[in-house]
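User: Please predict structures.

Assistant: First:
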Amino acid sequence: WLSSNSWGQLCNLGKLKGFENFVEQFTENVKFWEEYYQDKNPFQKELPEDLQDITMFQKMIILRCLRPDCVVDAIQTFVENEPSLGKEFIEPPLFDLGKCFEDSSSTMPLVFILSVGVDPAKDVYALGKEKGFEAPERLIDISLGQGQGIKAERAISKAVEDGSWVLLQNCHLCVSWLPRLEKIVQDLNPDTTNKDFRLWLTSMPSSDFPVSVLQNGVKMTNEPPKGLRANLKSTFAGIDEDLFDSSEREDKTQFQKLMFGLAFFHALVQERRTFGPLGWNIPYGFNDSDQDISRQQLQQLLDGYKDIPFKALRYLIGQLNYGGRVTDDWDRRLITFMCEDFVTDKILGDGYQFESKGAYKAPAKGATLDDYNDYIANLPLVDWPTVFGFDDNATMIKNNKDTLKLLDTLLGLQPRTGGGSGKTREDVIEELAVDIQKRMPELFEVERAKVKFPVVYSESMNTVFVQELVRFNRLLSTVRTSLVELVKALKGQVVMSTELEAMGNKMFDGQVPDNWTKKSYPSLKPLAGWVSDFLERLNMFANWMKGGSPNVYWISGFFFTQSFLTGTKQNYARKYTIPIDEIVFDFEVVPEVTKEHKSKPSDGCYIYGLFLEGAKWGEKENCILEALPKQLYSVMPTIQIKPCAKKELKQDKILYKCPVYKTSTRAGQLSTTGHSTNFVLAVDLRTRKSHPEKFWVRRGVAMLTQLDT
């Protein structure tokens, strides 16, 4: 039940003051610690007698090692109970734009720091109306972008004289003009500026935004409602009796039920973002305007047709209004399936459930607006993962990522001073740099590899191998050279450049330096894990150099995995003289084939090294199954990739097309080769009739070539 990463953290914990004997105490009382690990709220669990005297902060350190998913909640409990802090530090105050306005002045801009799904423009418009500053006469609204800077300058200079308001939206999209904005704000003089003038700015968090404008301005942020209940409450707060009964259909309940289904769909697509890459590969900015236009179209189509055109509604809502924002193919597959659950004739009957346990369902036919609001008020305060299609493991994965993000932020805020145990900060960095330097091998002899593995028509893997050596040499050279330079700089033999200083800071924090990641393959591992993984990859190619290509390939070890897959296709195409664009992959999971297997398949290849996220592979059942509790990732057995002509591919199995990614972020950029920097390929996995493709799509099941630790 204990992961190797958690055990490593516990061993490191033993080096801290007050935990010298912790590892021995842990090994002597393993049964208790397993119960602690399985507990729903381990932070509140009473510890053994020999640990009764430790502080709440020390309890959090133990929790960090064993159950990182509970750390954020524990920190909130700690802050709430700390006498010098208290509840007000964890509960955000209610957003009051009028109060913020009172704190501002004609020379002090009001800055909205945007978060996904929030549009403060309507709040500014509402306040403007209340104060007598209505658009377009006394409130000038400009959405910044290319060429809009000059227009904004003119508007500001006019408003400074006549006392109007100027709202500049999306400042982060006009980076080149921001220095000019900084100068304009600095030049605002209370003596020459109309006292009624106000400058409103909105921007996503951006490193390019002028610091002086932030320091001088009133800063505001307003996050969207969190949770399905809050989201539905927000939607139905804007629905009155007139709108609720506005359908011209004979049976008005059809519009009411579908409107509720749309509101629930809207809440779901927004709240899935909280699950990170499990929810959406890319966090899209769905907002209220998507729901408003969908509701209008819903009413138009219901009023205009006797039979409800569900197919057209699903297309408009799932593919255009919401789907228009979706740029990732796998996310598009998900939103299509989600829309089918809510824009359906099943919702018109009574008892239609949105998830298996029955807590979330459509209100009964004939329910009034008050009944709908009462139903929403009685929904669970904390969202059940099942309503999204997830299990409890998804919540653990989400919470783990939240903890890592919080701790990374804390690391970035810590003072750059010396560590404990008498060593200075520079000593720690130098020791680490020397240790990594010693472990790095020599560069590969590419010319020798070209002779030993020449370009041959029948074996494309030779070309793949040589290209991989060139890529790894580039990274290895960067690592070796920068480590030598850093050690010299720490000793005062060369000047400590900005890049070397940043590299030292990252290494001290246990993170991979930026100058390495620029030349590296995608990886989210911390420094120690990254170095070990890098050495494993180098070792794989060193063994290939000595003994030829392996019988079973470690797919995670390749720098550019797509070249390996193309090489596999090319070998098959040349062997059977078939055009390469007519070849597709078939897949078979072969658990009996281990990485020490003595032979290669006649066609295609064996691969291993993949991890299944959100499910597990059942070897007896020969299909994907639901994961065990707290089993966040499971190791996939060996897979045989079988190239074949498209027309020969058998379609007689129930399959889930499972995407494979390099890292758990899943999203990637489209590179110049036409490939995503993160997506590798889609593998067809067998599944049961009771768990069709739709089930696994909603659960966010994917395979990864590497874990984050």
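Second:
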Amino acid sequence: ISDFLRGEGGSSGLRAEIRAFFTVWTFITRLPAPTWVDHHPGYLMRGMAYFPLAGSIVGLFVSVWFDFAVDFLALPATVSAAISTGFSFWMTGCFHEDGLADSADGIGGGWSKSQILKIMSDTRLGTYGCATLVLYVVAKLELLSSLGNSRWAWMDCSGAGPALVVAHAAARWTAPYLLATNPYVDEGGPKHRFYGFMLRAKELVTLGRVSFASLYTVAVGVLCYGSGVWTWLLLAAVFLTAWLSGRYARYLLGGVLGDYLGATICVAELVAFTTILARASLEGIAMKVLEGRWDLRDLVTGDRGLWLIMESEGAVYRLALASLFLCLWCAAVGPPDVFQRELTSKKRGGTSVSAKGGEALALEGDFADMYEAMTEELDRKCKPVGSLGTLEDWCARLAALQKSPTPSIRSPVLIIFCADHGVAKSEARGGEGGSGFPQEVTRSILKGLNTGLTAAPVLAKANNVDLKVVDVGVSEGRGDPPSDAKAEVSFKLREGTRNCCRGHAMTSGEVFKLMEVGRTKVREALAQQHDLILLGEIGIGNTTISSLLLCALTGCDPKEACGVGATVGREISKKAIAKKVGIVRKALSSQSGGVRTGGPTALLARFGGAELCALVGSILEASEKSVPVLVDGYICTVAALIASHISPLCIRVLFFPDLVTSEPGHKIALTAIAKVAEASGLPLPPLPALTMGMRLGEGSAALVACGLLKSVCSITKK
């Protein structure tokens, strides 16, 4: 997403705009488009400028069917309206009507934001949705039939045909307007990944694009109805509908979302048809107002006084009084808004919190709701509130992920990704000599992992954790002796990454292939019924690369990020740290033009490393499956930070076992992740549960903490 927004998404040109239009066209119709167009959410947001254009084309096609039925076949207007509406449903796939039904179900059946969003994301149709669809279709047919036969003339049209063109264009103008003026809400449903992109790409709906949509809508109205007062009344009615819809969306949901935009388009269509049908009356009222012949003082000083309210001319006054009464009544007697109601419910023990008296806790809603509900449930246990510290946070987080008040961990698995880095090679072989150990040590550790001679297999066996070792980039260069290590290999960089001080460490294609390796390994683990992912890594030089990525992501100084890494002796070598700082500065300087451009994946391509890419992919896949992840050490935490920049929701699944005190960058990375969580409205991740000074890697801290995560499950069962 970030790559698109900073690169392709910001590009201009005729081809990009044509693609944006056809993206909109294929999105709101069933008609095909060129093969190089797809439902790309980024181009969809850019294409919001062309929503009215696409709408007017749809309206033109639909009007052709109406005119054919009523003029050529001489069918009644109601039947002709039904035929044209049926064609509209076929052409658009009932796209906006689906949003109308889902929104009606959610708003009608939900009493809180989380419930409304949950119902709206449900693909089933409920009572409110059925009733609203019937009302919408009946009203649309009646309005079109009442508008009558079409009369096409420049700036002087009338009848149903021109009304269809104008209404379809004006109603779809509401979508870019609402997106530009309101926050976008993540519904968290089955289309979460698609609409999550739109959440980040909302900035592409610029003022210029909304202005283009507005000018086009005005042009359509003027071409059909002229530039008189009447046309501006029609457009004002649609604008008022959009404005009120935005106000209601912010009150109810905190912003707009896809289904709600569709619902607004349907309502705006009916408003446009109604306004066109009431043209004569509205023009008369407007002229009275403009000429000063319509005065509210007539109610008091006129000949008929208050009796005017009871006559036909007083309908507007009666409507105003009824609306005022409803507003005052709701303000004085009604409940607070949904956000206040949700807060009050959580404090009192609402549907997301277990009721007192022995009723079972029911976890529902979004992650934050379930997390808070479980936290409150833990506060009711026989202990001082919060006295179990991080264990309580882990318990609430795990319960929210599993949507169960009694979470469990039955089958953990540790996945270790192994790779080499170009900066770790000796200077004679084109590297920077960035480690106290030669690069060949990576292969030795890899062999030890497979033969059970290193810490990870020993600790894994002691904690009953399955172990999988994946080679994604251990060097097999010509100068290296052959490796007899037997690790899983699907895709790997045969010589490791290139020296990032002299160019890009990888290509973008390699980055995504390596991320897919990580995703695949998680999918395989889940297929084998594992329910907890532990992540580890090995690779000489990867603390240097992690510090480099951290500096590029956060802007911190290399002196603040670089630590000791793997050491030959127990004494900390200031010389080794200084050399690492120098390598980081050199790499940042050599690619200074690109450090602040592109997204996280672009940084991975510039600096590496292969195992970090696989770790990022693993975290993203685990997040999409809501599977908990124990993040081992500094390198894995930097990978988690990168993943959080790609998808902030992945922070939900992260559990940090141990603080690496020898790597100052670890605390910086944890703080950066917390900032992403706060900006995304997610519960802040707690500090690591342990401070044991571990800095081995290999998933060793995650293995030690695995028992802790298992033990938190017992808190809820006793």
